Amino acid sequence: NLSLKRSLGSQAIADEKLILGSGHYATFDYLKNTRPDDPVILLENRCHISRHLEENGDLEGAYLALKENIDSAMSLGNKGLLKNAYQDLLHFCYNNTDEYAEEGIEAIESLLPLSSGEDEIDYLRCDRADLLAKMNKIDEAEKEFGAIFKEMPEWYFARYRYALYLEDTGKKNDAIDVLNQLISIKNKLDKDTYNAVVEVLERMQES
Known about the structure:
Distance between the termini: 46 Å
Shape: elongated
Helix content: over 70%
Radius of gyration: 20 Å
Low-confidence stretches: 1-11
Strand order of the largest sheet: 1-2
Number of strands: 2
Strand content: under 5%
Structural class: mainly alpha
Largest sheet: 2 strands, antiparallel
């Protein structure tokens, strides 16, 4: 444990508890002050171990650590912890789509019932479309985006995500067209979406 501890960087031993990091499931103050057998410590530590393994090329070990967190959160019956565990897994899968796109889609299917906000659900649906494309299921990805556009015609961030998807699938000119269409209705875009559109359009036109 100590060799692992030395290699991780941002951690501490507090009251004889090994704390490898914080922020995914609890604050450092919470972890420092909670009882040593609090399962949240294990959830947090596994998450940081997973990240360490991923950074060092052990994708299978990283994936299994995050899956173990899901099993633990499920056994605790805590919806908030379970949602965090699935989000961590999705983030990992999204960063390693060549190997884990299908597992990412499975994580999204588990996250959707745990998600309540409309934006949150639609972000997940955009993620699902991207992962379908990574699996060469282009028709299904297009249907997913089409359904989002139909159901949420004024959620223009989805059009921005669609432009990124088009670029990723080798349709850069189509992506630029979508971004230019968004620029033409900039008064309808929120500030963050507009700024993202401008930044990506400039990058695409320069490359």
